[in-house]
Amino acid sequence: MPNVPRQQKAEKGKYEGKAFLDYDEASDYLGIKRTTLYHHVIDMEITTHKFKKDRRRYLAIADVKQIEKIMEEPWLAGPDNEEKHQEAPKPEAA
């Protein structure tokens, strides 16, 4: 596969003051592709919002910032991150 450069993040104040972002805006804000954003939403079990007379789904800006934090520090992902780092139980001798 060719080495494709990462998309650029949006300017800092571009989405300031918005409570919800649609998937295109959120992917622009984070500098990732929509497919990657979908994977983050599914993996993190983020609730999407839908408004009357609008077919698009939206993400709360707090959830988008949470995705951004996880992208920067992936070792903090998941509520059970302590369980993953515990030592595996040793098998008992028979």
Labels describing this entry:
alpha+beta; 94 residues; three-stranded antiparallel β-sheet; Multidrug-efflux Transporter Regulator, Chain: A, Domain 2; 3 strands
Q: Main β-sheet: number of strands, strand sense, barrel status?
A: 3 strands, antiparallel
The CATH topology annotation of the domain at 20-78 reads as: Multidrug-efflux Transporter Regulator, Chain: A, Domain 2
Mean model confidence by pLDDT = 81
- Tell me, briefly, the overall form: globular
Q: What would CATH call the architecture of the domain at 20-78?
A: Orthogonal Bundle
Rounded radius of gyration (Å) = 18 Å
- Alpha-carbon distance between the two ends: 50 Å
Distinct helical segment count: 4
Strand order across the largest sheet: 1-3-2
SSE sequence, one letter per element: EHHEEHH
Structural class: alpha+beta
Strand content: 5-15%
In the CATH scheme, the class of the domain at 20-78 would be Mainly Alpha
Level of helix content? 25-40%
Poorly predicted runs of 5 or more residues = 84-88
What is the strand tally?
3
